[in-house]
Amino acid sequence: MDLELTAEQLELREATRDYADRVLRPAASRLDGLDTAADFPWELMREGTALGLKALPLPRELGGRDADMVMQCLVVEELAAGDLSAAYFFRHYWRFARLVPRLPAAIRDMVVHGIAHDERFVPASASTEPQAGSDNALPYDAPHHGATLSARRDGTLWVLDGRKSMITNGGIASLYFVLARTDPTLGIRAGATMFAVPASTPGVSTGPLYRKMGQRGSPQADVILENCRIPLEYAITEPGDGYAASERGLTSANITNAGMCLGVARSAYEAALDWSVDRVQGGKPIFRHQLVAQDLGRMQMLLATARSSLHAVAWEYSHSRGFHPQRSWQVRVFAAEVAIEVTQKAMLLFGGRGIMSDHPVEKLVRDALTLTHGNGTNALMTMKIGTHQAEERAAGRGHDGARRSTAAEGSARS
Ligand SMILES: Cc1cc2nc3c(=O)[nH]c(=O)nc-3n(C[C@H](O)[C@H](O)[C@H](O)COP(=O)(O)OP(=O)(O)OC[C@H]3O[C@@H](n4cnc5c(N)ncnc54)[C@H](O)[C@@H]3O)c2cc1C
Q1: Domain end call among 207, 238, 269
Q2: Ligand 1 atom, smallest distance to 212 CA
Q3: Which band of pLDDT confidence, cut at 50, 70 and 90, is reported for residue 410?
Q4: How many CA atoms, within 13 angstroms, populate the side-chain half-sphere of residue 324?
Q5: Hey, what's the torsion of the CAs at 96, 102, 106, 112, to 10 degrees?
């Protein structure tokens, strides 16, 4: 494992940090106030787009940087240290950029052109439904459970009907990747297919934006498909392969989600560190009080440990064979817990100011609390780690009841 950062990684991290400090952090409270899709602040994202941040994992010949997962984690931490919602905005493109080599030509051209030339090209990934959240993430692999939005063949078209729930970029997206059930008599692993659905397709509509406690500048809405007819080539997986594609996307998203957790936590830690030097109580800067110094020490220890383990997992994801998704669950869950503990410790070190609604740390606490749900809950991911461990042990003993619940090793990458 080689975790020495390259000159290109260091340079891009520096440029992203500069953009986040100058443009995103000062706009954090504006992003926090986003109410409707029409108010989305496109102009804040322009400099990041010019830096090439949307195209990081795209192959170089298509205008990207061929960035490995370590580079993606470095960049997303810097963005989230500026503002979590802006980090979500850029990170969302990466799942689609990674898929580009596997996409049918029509959709590939749409994605590559959109990323390079169209500020309003925004992708979204739609799996969750009102009755199917954790059942997709686990998955609960039984007929009629998990995502049931239906897709049926009608001559030269696919016809999609159903509702997706809490979809990030819902309302501003121009292209949805939709997990749909093509065979309801099978479980979701074999009965679902992934489709690309342009938002302009007749029959596509979105609900109002959800109002959330944190990451408020990242819009979520329900997406409704009614008799939505798309060409056959908009099926972006073979029939029945949709769940595996979705799972691969979630594995990479878990890793970058962990990077976002670190950005939020670091921002709170840095603010608390400055404050501990400047704030005087009991006749000395508060860091001279041992309890405060101990808090600062623990925050730094959690951050450094989470970052080391994240970069190791990111490197394994991109460069080592036999990567298993449980590594992505581990870093995502741990980093979300770190973000919650570090932001809350920071808030307490600011005393009464820490809970004032115009204080930056108050927003960071709210943002951190939203980080335990994306791609499945912390509870579910932790349970899956335990199940996987026990299944491996059972299989090693030749236990005939061992049942695989996760993707096979080596097939987890997009
Ligand atoms: C900010 C945000 C952005 C999102 N963006 C997207 C997106 O872009 N695309 C998308 O498709 N979805 C998105 N989601 C949805 C997200 O993936 C789901 O919220 C998540 O999978 C959990 O599903 P749920 O909310 O329906 O909770 P439920 O599945 O109803 O779970 C409720 C509780 O029960 C527990 N639980 C459920 N099943 C089990 C079980 N078998 N064993 C033990 N405990 C269990 C859970 O841990 C949880 O505590 C987003 C959600 C949020 C909050």
Answers
A1: 238
A2: 1
A3: very low
A4: 13
A5: 40
Per-residue pLDDT at 23 exceeds 50: yes
The atom of ligand 1 lying closest to the CA of 127 is: 11
Strand 280-281 versus strand 284-285 pairing type: antiparallel
Ligand 1, atom 22, lies closest to the CA of 133
pTM > 0.85: yes
CATH code assigned at 211:
2.40.110.10
Segment 373-377 shows an average pLDDT of 86
Residues 35-47 pLDDT 10s: 999 999 999 999 9
Alpha-helical regions (H) of 35-102:
46-50, 69-82, 84-99
Residue 51 three-state SS: coil
**Residue 395 alpha carbon to ligand 1 centre in Å:** 29
Determine the pLDDT at residue 322. Answer: 86
Residue 381 shares a structural domain with residue 267: yes
| Euclidean distance between CA atoms 212 and 220, whole angstroms | 9
Q: Specify if 401 maps to a domain.
A: no
- Integer Cα distance of 380 and 363 in angstroms: 26
Do residues 270 and 228 both lie within one domain? no
407 has a pLDDT exceeding 60: no
- Indicate if 86 and 208 belong to the same structural domain: no
Domain boundary among 117, 140, 167: 117
